[in-house]
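Morning, I've got a small favour to ask if you have a moment. I owe you a coffee for this, so here goes:
>
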Amino acid sequence: GRHRAEDPVDTAVGLSVLKKIGEEVEAGEPLVRVCFREESQLQGVLPYLEGAFKVEGSPCRPPELIRKVVC
C-alpha cells in the first residue's frame, strides 16, 4: 500500500478478499485479510471495512461487472 501515488509501494501492506459476493460464509469465518506494519494502519482502515460488507441469510447475485458497452 501507499498513502499518495508518488510514494513507493509497501508490498507488505495490503488487503486480500477471501470471499466473493454471493459465496456462502460461516459465522466467524474471515472475509478479508489485512496486512499492515503498524497498528495505526489497521485502525485507519477498520471503519471502511466494517461498512463494506453485508451478510444476509440467503445468497445474493453478484452485480454485473459490465453494465453497458459504448461504441
Summary: The chain has a mean pLDDT of 86. The helical segments are 39-50. The CA atoms of residues 11 and 62 lie 29 Å apart. DSSP finds one helix and two strands in the chain.
